[in-house]
């Protein structure tokens, strides 16, 4: 124990105070308002959310106690994607499985989902701005025309058509070797 020289009181050392660093901010955008927000925007009564302008929609959600992060997500999911094409557009029964690429606008990372023949498919957003999924040809056994859509949340794009065509007919191996691939040529060969 340490004693003060003039008294018999025990001297306690001053506690060492280490400054505490604030934890790092991971997401500065977490609860900041969207750039389209104009505080105090008046939302006309009896206006359906889908008929509101983006500014009105943000104010309406804010007035209903929706946090800014949720408002931003809803703004992304408010409109459906617009599709411009499929690659490929057809496949023949018996072909190997392949990757279907869908091009268009309005695709969102971790939100856009390809709907192939009415079923949600595992979807990847590619660097070129397309979305893609695998098509397993083992499930298709006959010609068919199916719809392909992409959805963001509950908003579905207009459909595009994908066609499964019949398998190519196989030629008789003996006729193929002889250069005859059709019926009239077979009959002509047999008459000789």
Describe the structure.
With 192 residues, the protein is of the alpha+beta class. It folds into two domains: 23-78, no CATH class; 82-165, Immunoglobulins (Immunoglobulin-like, Sandwich). The protein contains four helices and ten strands; from the N terminus they run H-H-E-E-E-E-E-E-E-E-E-E-H-H. The strands form two sheets. Strands 2, 4, 5, 8, 9 and 10 form a six-stranded mixed beta sheet that branches. Strands 1-3-7-6 form a four-stranded antiparallel beta sheet, with no helix packed on it. Helix 1 (54-63) packs antiparallel against helix 2 (68-76). Residues 184-192 have low confidence and may be disordered.
List strands and helices in order, with pairings.
Layout: H1 54-63, H2 68-76, E1 82-87, E2 90-92, E3 98-105, E4 112-116, E5 119-121, E6 124-125, E7 131-135, E8 144-152, E9 155-156, E10 160-165, H3 173-178, H4 183-191
Parallel strand pairs: 2-10
Antiparallel strand pairs: 1-3, 3-7, 4-5, 4-8, 6-7, 8-9, 8-10
Q: Note the total helix count.
A: 4
| Percentage of residues in helical conformation | 10-25%
What are the segments in which pLDDT stays under 50 over at least 5 consecutive residues? 184-192
CATH architecture field of the largest domain = Sandwich
What is the typical, i.e. mean, pLDDT? 83
Number of domains: 2
Strand content: 25-35%
The run of helices and strands is HHEEEEEEEEEEHH
């Amino acid at each position: 124990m340490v004693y003060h020289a003039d008294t018999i009181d025990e001297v306690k050392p001053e506690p060492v105070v280490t400054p505490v660093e604030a934890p790092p901010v991971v997401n500065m955008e977490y609860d900041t308002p969207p750039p389209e927000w104009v505080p105090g925007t008046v939302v006309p009564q009896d206006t359906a959310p889908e008929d509101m302008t983006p500014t009105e929609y943000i104010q309406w959600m804010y007035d209903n106690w929706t946090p800014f992060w949720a408002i931003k997500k809803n703004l992304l999911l408010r409109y459906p994607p617009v599709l411009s094409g499929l690659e490929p557009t057809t496949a023949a029964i018996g072909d190997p499985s392949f990757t279907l690429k869908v091009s268009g606008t309005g695709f969102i990372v971790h939100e856009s989902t390809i709907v192939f023949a009415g079923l949600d498919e595992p979807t990847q957003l590619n660097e070129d701005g397309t979305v893609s999924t695998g098509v397993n040809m083992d499930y298709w056994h006959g010609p068919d025309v199916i719809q392909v859509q992409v959805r963001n949340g509950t908003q579905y794009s207009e459909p595009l058509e994908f066609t499964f065509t019949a398998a190519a007919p196989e030629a008789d191996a003996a006729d193929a070797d002889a250069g005859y691939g059709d019926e009239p040529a077979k009959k002509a060969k047999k008459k000789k």
